[in-house]
Specification:
Blueprint (H helix, E strand, L loop, with lengths): L4 E5 L4 E4 L10 E9 L11 E4 L2 E5 L5 E4 L3 E7 L4 H13 L2
Antiparallel strand pairs: 1-2, 1-7, 2-3, 3-5, 3-6, 4-5
């Protein structure tokens, strides 16, 4: 598993892995769900990415830890969007 990769998890949800690769030995990963875009609340907080030809919104307020056993398959990577992902997490934690 790699930071900023997109995975399908148990139940069919799609998430982006936001946890540092330095913590790969932990039995959990810090992820943010991705959902098909219907409307954007705050662009910096909920950025939009193309995943498999579908616009998906990063639902940053729904960030959570999951068990690595719930991760089923790698779908894509958002490594080229590191800045936007970190900005969204910063906004969630610090408010700016």
């Amino acid at each position: 598993m790699a930071q900023f990769d997109v995975y399908r998890v148990t139940g069919g949800a799609v998430v982006v892995d936001c946890q540092s690769d330095l913590l790969e030995d932990l039995p959990t990963r810090f992820v943010v769900p991705l959902r098909e875009t219907d409307r954007v609340m705050l662009k910096r907080l909920t950025p939009v990415f193309m995943i498999g030809g579908i616009e998906m919104t990063m639902m940053t307020p729904l960030a959570r830890g999951i068990d690595v056993r719930d991760i089923e398959a790698r779908v894509d990577t958002l490594i080229d969007h590191e800045y936007e992902i970190k900005a969204a997490l910063d906004m969630l934690i610090s408010g700016f």
